[in-house]
Design brief:
By secondary structure, the protein is mainly alpha-helical. It has helices spanning 30-62, 64-94, 102-138, 143-173, 178-189, 196-219, 224-241, and strands at residues 2-3, 26-27. The radius of gyration is 23 Å and the shape is globular. Mean pLDDT is 82; it is low at 1-9 and 244-250.
């Protein structure tokens, strides 16, 4: 990116050396921005896959029972996420049609994300309770080991989904289509507001929270009544503090 400060003599017509525009402006190299963002997506995806490989390998070295518990953790993530999306779809369908204006579409998108995230947040402690109640039938191990295995499975689900999303976005950014053009424009416009590494940290933190909630439910299951509103409140605060997906997906 370069600033096109004028150095032309009086009476001469200004011409940008990058894009040949005749008005003074800030020039942004779109290709460099897009290439840089695609590299960030690749690195974040590789980091996610590395963490998944390390954690699941550690679980597998423990016992097959722990691996099965990790599988239940992954399944729990899928159920909670699917329920959140389902609730958001139902909520969107029940709302009266309000046109196709850009502002309305953005409000609908924000509401969709809000409903899906908060629904998932409300169901997560229940998923932890279910894992706690079934853990004893799957494997006999120290509670911390049980919680770690379930959290590893939960992270594997969320990180894999995010990696697939990143790979689709990388392909979209170089697609010779209208959707690709929109994605590249968004990449340039939001180049200072992408949070791929923060998203990785959020996924890891969420998995750790699930493990902690599982431990709480192992100790005293009735406390799930407290965990539900607490998890929703934390999810709402985190959602307001950051944007998880700065660019559109196909």
């Amino acid at each position: 990116m370069t600033d096109s400060d004028s150095a032309t003599a009086p009476g001469e017509t200004y011409v940008c050396p990058h894009c040949e525009a005749t008005h003074e402006h800030e020039h942004v190299d779109e290709r460099a921005v897009v290439d840089g963002y695609r590299r960030t997506l690749a690195r974040a995806s590789a980091a996610r896959m590395a963490v998944i490989l390390v954690t699941l390998t550690a679980v597998l070295l423990g016992s097959l029972g722990l691996l099965a518990l990790a599988g239940l953790g992954l399944l729990s993530w899928a159920v909670v996420t699917g329920a959140g999306w389902g609730a958001a779809v139902v909520d969107l369908a029940r709302r009266p049609h309000s046109g196709t204006r850009m502002g309305t579409a953005q409000r609908d998108e924000r509401r969709f994300v809000l409903v899906s995230v908060l629904t998932g947040a409300a169901l997560t402690p229940l998923a932890a309770l279910g894992l706690a109640l079934t853990a004893g039938a799957v494997v006999e191990a120290h509670p911390l080991t049980v919680a770690g295995a379930a959290a590893a499975g939960w992270f594997a689900g969320s990180a894999t989904a995010e990696t697939i999303s990143n790979l689709r976005l990388r392909a979209l950014l170089v697609a010779d289509t209208r959707a690709g053009e929109v994605a590249r424009e968004a990449a340039v416009r939001l180049r200072k507001h992408t949070h791929e590494w923060r998203g990785l940290g959020t996924a890891a933190a969420t998995a750790i929270v699930v493990g902690i909630e599982l431990l709480v439910c192992l100790w005293l299951p009735i406390l799930v009544i407290v965990l539900i509103p607490l998890h929703v409140a934390v999810a709402a605060l985190v959602g307001r503090a950051q944007q998880r997906r700065p660019l559109p997906l196909p």
